[in-house]
Amino acid sequence: KASGQMFDDAEYEEGDAEMPFLKASEMQRAPASSTSKKAPSKPYDHSSFLKPIQFGDSKNLHVGQSVYAIGNPFGLDHTLTRGIISGLTRDMQSPGTGRFITDIIQTDAAINPGNSGGPLLDSEGKIIGVNTALLSPSGAFAGVGFALPIDMVRSVVNQLLVEGRVQRAVLGAILAPDRTARMLGIDKGLLILQVVPGSPAAGAGLRPTFRDNFGRPVLGDIIVGANGKKILQSSDYYRVVNKLGVGETVELEIIRQTEREKVAVMLASNKQIERKIQEARQTILDGDKIEFNFDE
């Protein structure tokens, strides 16, 4: 939706309007003059030509279902492409934070540069996702596109409208990427590299990786379970945490040295520990650069 002012053909302002979609033919109704005369507020039936899109339910999608993508690929506006849902519950890693975005919709409806932000519709014209990315070695569509599920988008938009930003529930720990953990001999689970001071992870007593007096690495806690779900890799962890809100508790199962323990952690907002998060992301572990993901 976009908020703005509407004017009639006589250049009288008709009040505020929320415009989720506006056809080009309707936009031509506006006069060429840039000046307008303020008129007393009068009722106006915006529903005569402004129709808000209906929301679908991204929880009940299935592979093989027909979908339609709308966007402006390569600047070609009002482009509609058709395809099916090729896969569900896909994961995508944020290039900025390393945090995984989970439960993404995969489609073979053509998505190209310029489609991002456009709707993905079902056969009833309801929005079920927002086109966001494509997977291609050339940069052009190669049959694999991705859309954020509409349930996730609605949650984010509601936070933006109320808070002005998105608050995510975080543990407050630097987690080793799966590749790094495997190189260290950890074949399943998430290794904690560092715990942010003052974070929920610190309060729960989670232990980070460090070097002893002889410079040998001592591995920190390894997360192998969360709320009863097995954690084999990063995406498994984020699939659990992404569904939790600030103030909710996650029960972690960890391996500490050779012992298994369970630790309950009340998640905090990334906004509450933002400065400490930024400091932690710049951390170099005793001079050794170690690639890491940050739980934010």
Provide the low-confidence segments as ranges.
Answer: 1-37, 284-292
Structural class comes to: alpha+beta
What shape does the CA trace take? Answer: elongated
Write down the Rg.
24 Å
Instruction: Spell the H/E element sequence.
Output: EEHEEEEEEHEEHEHEEEEHEEEHE
**Quaternary organisation of the protein chains:** single chain
Q: How many strands, what sense, and barrel or not for the largest sheet?
A: 7 strands, antiparallel
End-to-end C-alpha gap? 28 Å
Count the E strands: 19
Sheet-strand content, in percent, reads: 25-35%
Overall pLDDT metric:
78
Share of helix, binned: 10-25%
Helix count, per DSSP? 6
Chain-wise SSE layout:
Blueprint: E1 2-7, E2 13-19, H1 24-27, E3 66-71, E4 79-93, E5 100-107, E6 119-121, E7 127-134, E8 145-149, H2 150-163, E9 169-170, E10 173-175, H3 178-183, E11 190-195, H4 200-203, E12 210-211, E13 217-218, E14 222-226, E15 229-230, H5 234-241, E16 249-256, E17 259-266, E18 268-269, H6 274-281, E19 293-294
Antiparallel strand pairs: 1-2, 3-4, 3-6, 4-5, 5-8, 6-7, 7-8, 9-18, 10-11, 10-19, 11-14, 12-13, 14-15, 14-16, 16-17
What does this structure look like?
The protein has 296 residues and is α+β, with helices and mostly antiparallel strands. The chain has helices at residues 24-27, 150-163, 178-183, 200-203, 234-241, 274-281, and strands at residues 2-7, 13-19, 66-71, 79-93, 100-107, 119-121, 127-134, 145-149, 169-170, 173-175, 190-195, 210-211, 217-218, 222-226, 229-230, 249-256, 259-266, 268-269, 293-294. The strands form 5 sheets. Strands 10, 11, 14, 15, 16, 17 and 19 form a 7-stranded antiparallel sheet that branches. Strands 3-4-5-8-7-6 form a 6-stranded antiparallel β-barrel. A two-stranded antiparallel sheet has the order 1-2. Mean pLDDT is 78; it is low at 1-37 and 284-292. Strand 6 and strand 7 (127-134) form a beta hairpin.
